[in-house]
Design goal:
Blueprint: E1 2-8, H1 12-25, E2 31-34, H2 39-45, H3 51-59, E3 62-67, H4 81-88, E4 93-99, E5 124-130, E6 140-143, E7 148-151, H5 157-178, E8 183-188, H6 196-208, E9 215-220, H7 221-230, E10 237-240, H8 242-252, E11 263-267, E12 272-276, H9 293-308, H10 315-335, H11 348-359
Parallel strand pairs: 1-2, 1-3, 3-12, 5-10, 8-9, 8-10
Antiparallel strand pairs: 4-5, 4-11, 6-7, 11-12
Amino acid sequence: MHLCVIPGDGIGREVVPAALDVLRATGLPLEITEAEAGWECFQRTGTALPDTTLAAARAAAAVLFGAVGSPSFPVPGYRSPIVALRKALDLYANIRPVRDHQPPLADHKRTSSSAIDGRSSVVDLVVVRENTEGMYAGRERLEDGGDTAIAERVITRRASARIVRAAFELARARSQAKSHQPKVTIVHKANVLRETCGLFRSTALQVASEYPDIAYEEMLVDNCALQLVQRPAHFDVIVTTNMFGDILSDVASYWGGGLGLAVSANLGEARALFEPVHGSAPDIAGQGIANPLAAIGCVALLLEWLAARPDASKPATLSTAASRIRAATAQIQASGPHTPDMGGNARTADITQAVIAALA
C-alpha cells in the first residue's frame, strides 16, 4: 500500500504521525512518500504546493493530508494547496460522515433528538459536498480601484449531476449495509439564487428520477442548518454545493463531537485524499495536546476506500483493519483517555497509544 503523506502545517505534523503509528499497528504492508505543502512551505519556497508534491500524490494509491495554515489576507502568489489538490486530482466529492458516539464535551452536554419519522434517534448522516466549483471556484476580482470585490459562483450541469449521483449511490450503499430506508436531502437556495442554485436543483431532480428506490426531499440551506441543530436524526445523506456543504458539514460535526473529531474524504474517479477537518490549530501547535482521533479516523476511511476498489488486493483484510480502527477510536472517544478539547488532560501520544492498545 503506497500512500502519499502530507503533514502540512501546525498540528498536522503531530496528528498525521499519530495516524501512521496506528496504521502500522494493524500490520498492513505500507510504503510512505512524505511530501510538503502549506503556508510554511510557501514562505520557504514560494509555492504552497510544489510540483514534486503533486507528482507524489498522483503516483500514490491515496493521500493522507494533515492541515494547512492559510493567511486571512491576500498574499500574492499564494493559493490554498488543499483546494489546488482537489482541482488537480479532480476530487469532486467531499464526503463528511457524522455519527453520534456521545463523547463528552468540555463546555456543555448534548442531547440527541428523539426518533423522527420512524428513524433512529442515533445521529448517523453524511454530508456530500461538491468540491470543485461554486463559490470556491477561485474567480474573484477587484474593481472600482479596489473599492468593489466580486466573486463569481460557478455551477455546471456536469458537476451537479455527478455529485448528486454520488450522493444517491452512497445512500443506496448505506441502506444495504445498515438495513434502513435510504433518503437524500437536496439542499439549495434556488428561491434566491435562481440561476446557479436553479441549475443545481433542476439537475439534482433529474438525477433523483433515476433512483426510484431512494426517497428524496428538497430543503433550503438556511432551514437545513436549523434542522441539523433541532433534529439531526431526520437526515441520512445530504447533498449540496461547495460552500453550502462546507458550512453545513461543520454544523453537523457537532453531533460527532465537534470539528476536532470530524473526518473527510475527497474522492474522484481514480484518486482519493483523506483529511481531518480541524485545521492547523496554531494556538496549540507544538504543545503535544492535539487530538489525533480525526486523523486516525481518516485512516479508517482510507482503508475502506481502498478495499472497495475493483483492483483491491485483499479487500477483506483492508476492511477488517478499518473496522478495528473504528472500534478502537469509538472506545477511546466514549471512555477515554481524552485530550483537553474533550475535557481531559491526555496528550497526543497518550491517545495514540490507547488506540493501539485497543486494537489488540
